[in-house]
Amino acid sequence: MHPTTPDGRYFVVRQQLWRCSNPSLPDAEREALVADLMAARRSVKKAKGAEDAQALKSARARVNEAKVALGERGPVWWEDGSPDYNRHKVSNTPYAQWFAQLFDDDH
Q1: What does the CA dihedral 4, 16, 68, 66 come to, rounded to 10 degrees?
Q2: Residue 16's beta-bridge partner residues?
């Protein structure tokens, strides 16, 4: 499992922050959007296998649309004015000390 920042905005993979989905989305909406995202990702894989550039472009656009709708890309879903650190190295963000302490607590 990947660690999630204390504010629930990001999870960390390979020391990089990735924005979490908007937690205020209703469950049914989130489930539908995740299903759309997974279908779009399967389309990306299929288009790559078929070496179909147009289908790949379309599928990637669908992936992006689903991620924006989920709140993982595009405008941030929080409203306190805090900046977005999506895809930033955790050590270069205000979460650096929190992340370092995760490993200090293990030893």
Answers
A1: -80
A2: 13, 89
